[in-house]
Amino acid sequence: DGGITQSPKYLFRKEGQNVTLSCEQNLNHDAMYWYRQDPGQGLRLIYYSQIVNDFQKGDIAEGYSVSREKKESFPLTVTSAQKNPTAFYLCASSISDGGYTFGSGTRLTVV
Amino acid sequence: LAKTTQPISMDSYEGQEVNITCSHNNIATNDYITWYQQFPSQGPRFIIQGYKTKVTNEVASLFIPADRKSSTLSLPRVSLSDTAVYYCLVPFYNQGGKLIFGQGTELSVKP
Q1: Where are the beta strands (DSSP E) in chain B?
Q2: Which tens digits make up the pLDDT trace of A42-67?
């Protein structure tokens, strides 16, 4: 079955550590996105990529980094510069006519 | 920054029809309108997508007026399991392909 796989489902990070969240899709979608969701809040765009080897900052990119070396993969690194990283992170992909598919999310907690 | 606008919350009772309206005044000619449902700690799930007039599937109907500046998601005979947050999504291609979420509508269905 085609879809988006996010891993891990739960992730714990110590203060000052970098962590990388995985997002893989086998839908052959060109565009991929990363969102952050805080309790009771909507989704805020962190980074997005419309083609391989290219990506743009979203509304809250500070403290995060991404890469897009392959069409099917768009990993997100939460760096130590992100002061409040505890949140639910969602990855999505889309084709040009707006058919978006979301992963099941990764819940990151700072311990 | 152009965004969609929806009511923050709505209450309903089981068996009633629920209509959720979304405003998207800056919709571009190429934009489709897509609605998603999100349960806590899960990724948003596709409900319905449309471009103009009316679209119906086994889950919902989507009504889009001629000017396309708004859309209405109609859920017939809701049940307790329809309690969720509902988002309308418009790509806003005039913003370089960003995929921006509005606040969403938190629907609470009561027995």
Answers
A1: 9-13, 18-23, 33-38, 45-50, 53-56, 61-64, 70-75, 84-89, 105-110
A2: 889 999 999 999 999 998 999 999 99
Calpha distance A10→B14 (Å, rounded): 34
State whether residue B89 sits within 8 Å of chain A by CB: yes
CB pairs under 8 A between A and B: 60
User: How far, in Å, CA of B45 to CA of B76, rounded?
Assistant: 18
Residue B84: its chain A contacts at CB < 8 A?
A: none
**Residue B41 to residue A44, Cβ atoms within 8 A:** no
Nearest CA in chain B to A57: B98
Sheet with B53-56, strands from edge to edge, namely B18-23, B70-75, B61-64, B53-56
Q: Which residues of B touch A107 (CB under 8 A)?
A: 41
The model's pLDDT over A3-48, given as tens digits with 9 standing for 90+, comes to 999 999 999 989 889 999 999 999 999 999 999 999 888 889 999 9
Angle at B44 between CA B39 and CA B48, to 5 degrees: 110
B47, B36 Cβ separation under 8 angstroms = yes
Residues of chain B contacting A4 with CB distance shorter than 8 Å: 43
Q: Which residues, other chains included, contact A37 with Cβ-Cβ below 8 Å and sequence gap of 6+? A: A43, A44, A87, A88, A89, A90, A105
Tokens linked to A60: 């809250």
User: What count of residues does chain A have?
Assistant: 111
Name the DSSP letter for residue A27: S
The amino acid at residue A51 is: I
